[in-house]
Amino acid sequence: MDFNVKRFAADAGTLFSRAVQFTEEKLGQAEKTELDAHLENLLTRAECTKHWTEKILKQTEVLLQPNPNVRIEEFFYEKLDKKVPTRMNNHELLGQSMIDSGTEFGPGTAYGNALIKCGETENQIGGAERELIQSAAINFLTPFRNFLEGDFKTILKERKLLQNKRLDLDAAKTKLKKAKMADARALAEQDLKMTQSEFDRQAEITRLLLEGISSTHAHHLRCLNDFVEAQMTYYAQCYQYMVDLQKQLGNFPSAFSSNNNQSALSGGASVSVPILPLSAPLSTATGNTSSGFTELQKFSGSRKARVLYDYDAAGSNELSLLADEVIMVSSVPGMDSDWLMGERGNQKGKVPITYLELLN
Q: Which of 151, 211, 269, 299 registers the highest number of CB atoms within 10 A of its CB?
């Protein structure tokens, strides 16, 4: 019991001396030992890392789940260590509504069939979104949280200990300055030597932890790369799903075809934008445009061209194409540079140059 009382008294005395030292520093009545510049820079870097890690983490969560109420609910489930209830995302809700309405209108009708196909595609996109969220949670969000809740909390703990050791050191320096008697000065010098040693040891521990921030940056860089790859996969999947859907809808009767790929311009004029298939090599399209097509558009005349991919006309002024067929193409003054006039027998209409290869 006597030992506990003495220990409590010693701890209380230490806390009191720290409080006095801190107050006198704030009032400008006591000197303060400054940390070396390298350690100060490391502390600043750690704070900066913590600040931006928190911000990136928060904004990524907002991106993956825009609904704040759902985010709060998921947060509580996570803290309670319970499984988050499965719910349909927005794409899946839209997809289910389209499928239900298409079934009601009749799968045998053009509109009903189109709604069902669109709904199935929305469900596929919803599934891809789930995969993105799961990948981001494991490979991106979790490492960021682990840093904030683990490594950085350890840094904060050691930094607080360093602050206390610094206050003890400066209190010992003040005590030595005030000591008048030889015995008191000897005791104060011994105390100063001990507190200086403890301060140096804690400064070294804190420095080693702070230098580990470089490893944290390297780890977060790998996590960032994983997140970018997950997004790339997600957007590529979504694009492919929509390309497949557009192709399916393009097989419907022309009365039901979409005209949304024609952008209204001023004065009622419109221009069609050709869509390059996902499988089309970019070098083919850009190479054609920069070589023979440019010459053909610049000078009057016509050339034979081979069709590279199937193309379904989006309007009566366009010409549908079949892969590997050969047609005649020519340039018409005022026509958009992405298009030529195509002829097949008595049929004539606009064709996208990205679907063509000029023949000699």
A: 151
